[in-house]
Design a protein that fits this description.
- This protein is about 10% helix and about 40% strand.
- The chain has about 210 residues and is mainly β.
Length: about 210
């Protein structure tokens, strides 16, 4: 195809507008109308560990992560818990329960002079000790608590034949045995006053206070 004497060749995907397009409109068409190609997803982490939230966008984009702690979204800086605030991957370290579910994150992505705001992502933080406590609650109980001379270990039938140990606050073992039935009575008469841990099957723990 020949256009006058200026061009020899072929042209594909022609578009015509009745006005001048803005730089942002041209840029987004260059990226198939998507500056952000993958939205950030909800993330999970454990207390005292780290979590990441990631976004992908057109090559050459810049990033600014924001968070909302209940007062509206604000820009994050590389300080405290946060790093990578101007990259496509935000890192949140030293997680704590205050980060759990009530904290949202989103990213402002700029391609040239064209901004685009991502969807929000929620961070869920789990406390392993709470999981352990819940597991213990479902498997056995120790009563009365506080106790003086005797206490009772009541277990889920599935835990019969498990071993138990009683530990001082410093981790010293002062008693051990095997659970033979659902209800096991233990003699605390030789114990000093203090806080002890009853550990079942090497992983499930209950605190008991002994008073004299």
């Amino acid at each position: 195809m020949i256009f006058g004497n200026q061009f020899t060749g072929s042209v594909d995907d022609i578009g015509m507008w009745n006005r001048a397009l803005t730089d942002c409109e041209i840029a987004t068409m260059y990226l198939n109308n998507e500056i952000i190609t993958t939205q950030p997803q909800n993330s999970n982490g454990l207390v005292n560990n780290s979590a990441q939230i990631t976004i992908t966008a057109g090559a050459g984009s810049t990033f600014q992560w924001q968070t909302d702690n209940g007062t509206g979204f604000q820009n994050i800086t590389n300080a405290g818990q946060y790093s990578g605030v101007n990259t496509n991957t935000l890192n949140v370290s030293n997680l704590n329960i205050s980060n759990n579910n009530n904290q949202q994150f989103k990213c402002i992505v700029n391609f040239g002079e064209c901004p685009s705001t991502s969807n929000s992502a929620v961070l869920t933080v789990t406390d392993p000790s709470s999981i352990e406590e819940q597991a213990s609650a479902n498997q056995f109980s120790v009563y009365p608590n506080p106790a003086s001379s005797n206490a009772t270990i009541n277990v889920n039938p599935k835990m019969i034949n498990s071993t138990y140990v009683i530990l001082t606050a410093t981790g010293k073992e002062v008693m051990s045995g095997t659970i033979k039935k659902e209800i096991t009575n233990i003699d605390l008469s030789s114990f000093s006053s203090g806080v002890y841990t009853v550990q079942l099957a090497g992983k499930l723990n209950k605190k008991i206070i002994v008073t004299k």
